[in-house]
Write a structure and sequence with these properties.
It is built from three helices and five strands. The chain is an alpha/beta fold and 138 residues long. It has one domain (13-127). Strands 1-5-4-2-3 form a five-stranded mixed β-sheet. Helix 2 packs across helix 3.
């Protein structure tokens, strides 16, 4: 996460879930974000980033946010709408991405001056050459 939400940033941080199962991963993210920002009213995502959730699936708590899934939402972004109406956009690290690329993309997404889209952030991270140890080469 960026140290402070910056209106000009395209991304406010990144999320690297351990699977592409929305029912398994989303409750933990919401819990972490509630701890930082207070109540989350809505979660926006692109269904192409996830395995299809079970029919009628929702988060298991009455105070849980409404989950909206639309192909018009930017790929590789999970947006959380806070109770005050402000939006937090997180780069979603795709399944199968290497650890080195994932770390580079997360670092870029969390930079206080980032202006890249999720697609641009991932492309930039994928273009870095890494050593066998996962460090940037050069």
């Amino acid at each position: 996460m960026t140290p402070k939400l910056v209106a000009l940033n395209r991304l406010d941080g990144a999320w690297w879930p351990s699977s592409d199962s929305l029912p398994e991963e989303l409750p933990g993210l919401v819990k972490a974000m509630v701890g930082r920002f207070g109540r989350i009213r809505v979660v926006l995502l692109n269904p192409q980033d996830w395995m299809e959730p079970p029919s009628g699936w929702t988060l298991p708590n009455a105070r849980s946010p409404w989950v909206s899934s639309s192909t018009s939402h930017e790929r590789h972004v999970v947006s959380l709408v806070r109770n005050d109406g402000r939006r937090v956009d997180l780069l979603l690290i795709p399944m199968g991405e290497s650890a080195a690329v994932s770390r580079a993309a997360m670092h870029s997404a969390a930079a206080a001056d980032n202006g890249l889209t999720a697609t641009q952030t991932l492309a930039a991270a994928r273009s870095i050459r890494f050593t066998a140890e996962g460090r940037a080469d050069g």
